[in-house]
């Protein structure tokens, strides 16, 4: 006799998936960071759109300051970015006033990316490079782009959504 999925089994399955996401970076898991909802995230609208178009644009559904503050807009150089290892996120500013955010976990073998320079987010584990504008693969063995992450830009503050 088969049992239909119940709320309890769905929640238990979700908890197991969340636990696997907390495993350390440089592991041999490879694609655990690029399954299920990362595909959805990478095909979604670019993150960090609030602050890219007009002041207050893209607001509404964010929940009024519910995220963790990461940094100030002045700390993200135009044409560059900054890595937040504890949060496993990298924030970039491809064009003045347009902020983007991506997972800092390399899609090759799960290392945390090391730096942002010359228009790319760089993983020094095996040489993968990703474009700061959209997280797409610019070079190296990485098979997939860095998944987009949601951020908020309010005034001069950048935070996690």
Describe this structure in words.
This protein has helices spanning 7-21, 36-43, and strands at residues 69-72, 81-84, 89-95, 98-103, 115-117, 120-122, 129-131, 137-139, 151-154, 157-160. The longest helix is centred in the first third of the chain and has 15 residues, at 7-21. The chain contains two helices and ten strands. It is α+β, with helices and mostly antiparallel strands. The model is unreliable at 1-64 (pLDDT under 50). The radius of gyration is 17 Å and the shape is globular.
Topology of this protein?
Layout: H1 7-21, H2 36-43, E1 69-72, E2 81-84, E3 89-95, E4 98-103, E5 115-117, E6 120-122, E7 129-131, E8 137-139, E9 151-154, E10 157-160
Antiparallel strand pairs: 1-10, 2-3, 3-4, 5-6, 6-7, 7-8, 9-10
What portion of the residues fall into strands of 2 or more residues?
25-35%
What share of the residues lie within helices? 10-25%
Lateral arrangement of strands in the main beta sheet: 5-6-7-8
What structural category arises from helix and sheet content? alpha+beta
Topology as H/E string? HHEEEEEEEEEE
What's the number of extended β-strand segments? 10
Shape: globular
Report on the biggest sheet: 4 strands, antiparallel
Low-pLDDT runs: 1-64
End-to-end distance: 43 Å
Per DSSP, the total helix count is 2
> Roughly what is the average pLDDT, rounded to an integer?
73
User: Mind telling me the C-alpha Rg?
Assistant: 17 Å
Task: Write a concise keyword list for the protein shown above.
3-stranded antiparallel sheet, 161 residues, disordered N terminus, alpha+beta, 4-stranded antiparallel sheet, globular, single chain
